[in-house]
Write a structure and sequence with these properties.
single chain; mainly alpha; globular
């Protein structure tokens, strides 16, 4: 009997706390949302499972110096390697043609960053430091890798809640965006049918990633790795001569990295550090950030509607948040509900991919300013 008691006292069952149990439940909820609600499953399943692992006491899997996830964290998250690799994969899967065809849509991607600054101001009012507030605000860009990259530069202790908020709200874009889009537009505006995009030549698509890399790296050197790898992946795709590299980057490489990034981020969600008032505030500010970004994009869309005499559908502005391609699909869905003959998807992809670049630029500005303080 004493042997059994001694064995139990050295087990995780004897050491587990209510906070760890609560975080295991959170991990299970994330996995449930991913599997049964199709909410960003590629990310929420590894994040949720990572949260479960991190809250199983005495396993040592996240402990220094030899814990598996401790090593992964320092090898790929602490040095921002995983987000950068994922950006290269995103580039290999992205078509910048709609943005090249309508370069003015980059202003919609810029306007959608409004949510970043609204959330930043709210976070400051609630007592967060400027670096913490900037990291929280970047959730509004709807870009998980950029949120992680920025947070690791400015407020690494907030990585868990910020990453979870960013990816969870990305999965909730179909719920968050449509009410805001309808509130800010009229039926007439939502029913506008836009003309066909002009054809984009191969040389334009090849020059685009090269030019953008040079410009962004010269203006905002701190995000050169992020934007540079995004554009390198896109150059693989558009060159048409390195299919093996393009396919590997868009499939095997990004998939492997997503597994490591998701589970490692999940392991930062430990009960003793995650269950705080600050975490709840960050989750709340994430909604504000997404809502503000959607509103900013739609409002600039309305400006283009007026300037063009009703030729631009303001709904495409909501895709300026960089949840690619989900936000563009929501623009298409809401527009087609008003007018079955409306096909906005390719038009919305312009602001959508512009949002990816816009979020990276905003992150670069904030990191440059705040790390220089």
């Amino acid at each position: 009997m004493s042997l059994l008691i001694n064995l139990f006292s050295q087990s995780g069952l004897a050491a587990i706390t209510w906070k760890e149990i609560a975080m295991i439940v959170v991990g299970l909820v994330l996995i449930y949302l991913a599997i049964f609600k199709d909410a960003e499953p590629l990310l929420l399943i590894p994040i949720g499972f990572g949260a479960i692992i991190a809250n199983l006491p005495l396993s040592g899997i996240t402990s220094p110096p030899s814990g598996f996830f401790y090593i992964l964290y320092n090898s790929g998250v602490a040095n921002e390697l995983f987000p950068i690799i994922i950006f290269m994969g995103i580039g290999a899967m992205t078509d910048f043609g709609p943005l090249i065809a309508n370069p003015w849509t980059i202003l919609m991607g810029a306007a959608a960053q409004l949510g970043v600054f609204i959330a930043l101001l709210f976070a400051l009012l609630f007592g967060f430091t400027l670096k913490e507030a900037a990291s929280i605000g970047i959730i509004g860009g709807a870009d998980g890798p950029t949120a992680i990259y920025t947070t690791m530069k400015l407020a690494p202790h907030l990585l868990g809640p910020i990453a979870v908020a960013a990816y969870t709200y990305m999965s909730l874009v179909p719920i968050i965006q449509p009410p805001i889009m309808r509130l800010l537009t009229t039926k007439k505006e939502r029913s506008v049918v836009m003309g066909q995009l002009r054809p984009v030549s191969k040389i334009e698509k090849i020059l685009f990633p090269i030019v953008i890399t040079i410009l962004v790296a010269l203006l905002f050197p701190v995000v050169a790795p992020l934007v540079g790898m995004l554009m390198l992946g896109n150059l693989f795709k558009e060159s048409g001569v390195v299919d093996r590299l393009s396919n590997t980057t868009a499939n095997e490489l990004i998939n492997i990295t997503t597994i490591f990034l998701g589970t490692t981020v999940g392991t930062t969600m430990r009960g003793d550090t995650f269950l705080t008032v600050k975490t709840l505030e960050i989750i709340f500010f994430g909604v504000i950030a997404f809502g503000g970004g959607t509103a900013g994009g739609v409002l600039i869309g309305k400006v283009f509607y007026w300037l063009t005499g009703g030729k631009v559908n303001p709904l495409i502005g909501s895709a300026g948040v960089s949840a690619v391609p989900m936000a563009a699909r929501i623009s298409q869905k809401v527009g087609q509900k008003e007018n079955p003959g409306n096909f906005l998807l390719m038009h919305a992809m312009g602001p959508n991919v512009a949002g990816v670049i816009g979020t990276a630029v905003v992150a670069g500005v904030m990191i440059t300013i705040l790390l220089g303080r």
